[in-house]
Amino acid sequence: MGWSEALLVRPVSLGPKSADRVRAINRLQAQLLEYFPALERAFDYSRSKAALLLLTKHRTPDGIRRTGQARLHAWLKKHGTRSSAAVAQAAVDAAKSQHTTVPAQHLGELIVAALAQEIITLDQELAELDALISEKVTEHRHTRVLLSMPGFGPVLAAEFLGATGGDLTVFQTADRFAGVVGLAPAPRDSGRISGNHHRPRRYDRRLLRVFYLSGLSALKSCPASRRYYDRKRTEGKTHIQAMLSLARRRLNVPWAMLRDGTTYTPAACRSDPLAA
Q1: CA 37 – CA 94 distance, rounded (Å)
Q2: Cα separation of 119 and 17, whole Å?
Q3: Is the pTM of this model over 0.85?
């Protein structure tokens, strides 16, 4: 498989798999609410691998109470999960808070077990796909440039290259590229009303996602991006508005880097769009 095929895998296959994962988590939580609401509240099942693994074997109040904290901890630890002691204790505390067996429990626990295993399997497939993309994206000549920019990792770089091919000359200007991404407001003036700007009706949602997520990541690793975001918040912008403004400003950076074939350097110079 060449690099271009690997790049196309994510928007075509990984997107639906991610959606399947979200749906499975929502169904799992809904089933738990039917017969074991305390356990549903105890964990964030979108993030805790240990909590999902727990549900493949221990998922009823009476069963968890019989097993006990020590054996739950040992079982989770044996399977290599993190925070196994805390997860075991939280599960036992949830079980101790409920001593009523509801009619939906027998069927509900079977569905929960199947959904938990499905989510674990999807997580493994997504991780393998991410690893494949991270490996193959290095074959593209623009990867080094993109990875030098704060907030861009291999997967986001792959999505960017999959959507653009790395050739931005077709867009002619950064402003036109911003319009395609959905970060340049389009005028919707009518009659004597002017200055009525909205996001374009047609834009590339994949690229908008790339710049939004890279901006979120950059808040943790790039002081210039954090300062710009904080300034927008002090100006009264909401979180979403400030992030979109940051994404628009950051768009100028890969545009210039790919145009000039240069990598990003944290600049004290005024020419750096993020330094202002």
Answers
A1: 9
A2: 10
A3: no
Query: In the chain, how long is the greatest CA-to-CA distance?
Result: 74
* Burial environment of residue 217 by CB neighbours within 10 A (0 to 12, 13 to 18, 19 or more): middle
Name the burial class of residue 240, with classes exposed (0-12), middle (13-18) and buried (19+) by CB atoms within 10 angstroms of its CB.
Answer: exposed
Match 């074991």 to its residue by tokens.
36
Element (H, E) at 198: strand 197-198
Contact criterion met (CB below 8 Å) for 108 and 31: yes
Kindly list the structural domains of the chain, giving each domain's residue range(s) and its CATH number in brackets, ordered by start: 3-136 (1.10.287), 140-260 (no CATH)
The Cβ of residue 10 has, within 10 Å, a number of other Cβ atoms equal to: 23
d(CA 252, CA 126): 31
Residue 187, helix vs strand vs coil: strand
The 10 Å Cβ neighbour count of residue 71 is 12
Taking only the tens place, the pLDDT of each residue in 113-168 is 999 999 999 999 888 877 877 777 777 888 888 888 888 888 888 888 888 877 78
